[in-house]
């Protein structure tokens, strides 16, 4: 399972209908939280996201609509008895803010909180696990801001059962076959791994572009992604305002997705001025047909 | 109009049904916000509270369920174009937290933000306006914490129309009569104010006791209040746990209200462990009949 669930799709000012930015990526058994606007913890409850399974939290930047819900979530996790450690990836200032808030409340979290500071000059891999890799990259916004590439690694080779049986390889050796090992038979025959397996399925890739001005340098990050999330704060009629505020429009997001050869585009971070979201799709689809609205509570397979 | 509207009635962990502490006091044309847990700004929208009319915000203490929604509210007020100044009354550390958050976001609020630091040794009057007085007092909690006494002053004397007409006082002079002035007639007669007016109605008093352990010293603050808000985090069976955590129970709140001769008691800050609130009323009313549950969205006249 590799999917993303939308918890908030709105830009700065929350409404009763739309919440500020937050998404949960499910990668096999693990949950990753990307951004955490005010109200995220309640949205997690509403959409039955198991908070306890989140081990990594990525904060793109320190505008409030992307992180004001984080301290409340940490607080609640502690009150609910979490003991497993949690890692936060963000610009280093976030650590100072959280520490000050915990100190003023005389709160000692019941779990270890690790911080990985994000600085543009160190862009690259930040999570490197057996079936998961996360990289970050800088994007152009009013303050330091980062996007994330999340890859579900599929390293296991695929066994061809008829072949493995034909060579009389015992089932107990199958997991080693998946890792690429050759099999030495007792009669002296060395069964080469590629005789009995196929290469792993290609990794799947989700690219989260955070808040950004229209920037063609993003194309390199988005290339061949299975799913790209790109903000569309405004409809294209407000392209000038978007640029002034370091945000993007519908048509701009769709243009980048098309040029990058992405498979699918997810748009969000809609300005509160829009009550209807359909016009965003109507503007994107002629440019990049495979566009979806990040509707709160919806889950998109990657 | 002197009333309190409940925006949040829950203790630490918010749920989809109940929000952390926040209340709005309406005093004539003015709104006062008391505490501001996560999600308060959306609750204000939901219950049609005009955020622009809030000029004073009182934060009882720096546990997150009483202030995590403040930075988001300030941010939104600024984005919505507020220019009128706003005053926050809280322990001094709050100013450092908010300044750090604004700085990291490179946000310059569009309005002046004033801070009035609350320190136990200075307990007393913090707002002194024509028709409104607010005092603060320390309460006993795990960290520095304060309660507030909000008085709607009624300084205008009440004109007795028949008397004022009998003395031939022109209507244009009525507002001066309400302020207590005598009237000098052209024929030389000095009409004494008390011949034609009655004393002002007595002030009305709302006492907000914040988060507190059972503490009989609160009785002095609550005396003869028209409405007292006292937390009841737990039902009385958990009195021991309440004391350990510097919180109170249903029966304890009711006992204090009864002993103080308060007219009405409002209870809230219910632990998330309780899904039903009726048992809180059932425990309070035998001790102090005039008890009400702080139901979200409900308005109580003071």
Description:
Chains A, B: Belongs to the RNase Z family. Chains A, B: Keywords: Endonuclease, Hydrolase, Metal-binding, Nuclease, tRNA processing, Zinc. Chains A, B: Its cofactor is Zn(2+). Chains A, B: Zinc phosphodiesterase, which displays some tRNA 3'-processing endonuclease activity. Probably involved in tRNA maturation, by removing a 3'-trailer from precursor tRNA. Chains A, B: This is Ribonuclease Z. Two copies of one chain form a homodimer. Chain A has 302 residues and is an alpha/beta fold. Chain A folds into two domains: 2-154 and 201-301, Ribonuclease Z/Hydroxyacylglutathione hydrolase-like (Metallo-beta-lactamase, Chain A, 4-Layer Sandwich); 158-198, no CATH class. Chain A is built from ten helices and 18 strands. In chain A, the strands form four sheets. Chain A has a seven-stranded mixed sheet. In chain A, strands 7-8-9-14-15-16-17 form a seven-stranded mixed sheet. In chain A, strand 3, helix 1 (40-46) and strand 4 (54-58) form a beta-alpha-beta unit. In chain A, helix 9 (250-260) packs across helix 10. The longest helix of chain A has 12 residues, at 93-104. The N and C termini of chain A lie close together (9 Å). The model of chain A has no long low-confidence stretch (mean pLDDT 95). Chain A binds chain B through residues 12-16, 38-39, 41-42, 45-46, 62-64, 68-69, 71-72, 75-76, 79-80, 91, 93-94, 96-97, 100-101, 104-106, 142-143, and chain B through 12-16, 38-39, 41-42, 45-46, 62-64, 68-69, 71-72, 75-76, 79-80, 91, 93-94, 96-97, 100-101, 104-107, 142-143.
């Amino acid at each position: 399972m590799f999917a993303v669930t939308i918890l908030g799709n709105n830009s700065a000012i929350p409404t009763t209908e739309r919440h500020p930015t937050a998404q949960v990526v499910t990668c096999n058994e693990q949950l990753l939280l990307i951004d955490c606007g005010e109200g995220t913890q309640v949205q997690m409850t509403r959409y039955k996201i198991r908070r306890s399974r989140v081990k990594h939290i990525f904060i793109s930047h320190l505008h409030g609509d992307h992180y004001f819900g984080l301290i409340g979530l940490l607080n609640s996790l502690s009150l609910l008895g979490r003991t497993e450690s949690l890692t936060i990836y963000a610009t280093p200032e976030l650590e100072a803010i959280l520490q000050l808030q915990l100190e003023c409340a005389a709160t000692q979290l019941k779990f270890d909180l690790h911080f990985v500071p994000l600085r543009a000059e160190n862009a690259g891999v930040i999570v490197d696990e057996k079936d998961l890799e996360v990289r970050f990259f800088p994007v152009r916004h009013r303050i330091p801001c980062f996007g994330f590439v999340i890859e579900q690694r599929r390293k296991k080779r695929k066994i061809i059962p008829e072949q493995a049986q034909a060579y009389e390889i015992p089932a107990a050796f199958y997991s080693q076959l998946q890792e690429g090992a050759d099999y030495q038979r007792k009669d002296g025959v060395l069964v080469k791994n590629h005789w009995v397996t196929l290469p792993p399925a290609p990794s799947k890739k989700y690219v989260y572009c955070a808040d950004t001005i229209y920037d063609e340098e993003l194309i390199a990050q988005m290339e061949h992604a299975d799913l790209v999330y790109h903000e569309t704060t405004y409809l294209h009629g407000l392209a000038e305002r978007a640029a002034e505020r370091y945000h993007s429009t519908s048509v701009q997001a769709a243009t980048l997705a098309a040029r990058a050869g992405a498979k699918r585009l997810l748009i969000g971070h809609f300005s509160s001025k829009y009550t209807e979201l359909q016009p965003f799709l109507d503007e994107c689809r002629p440019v990049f047909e495979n566009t979806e609205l990040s509707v709160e509570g919806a889950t998109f397979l990657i």
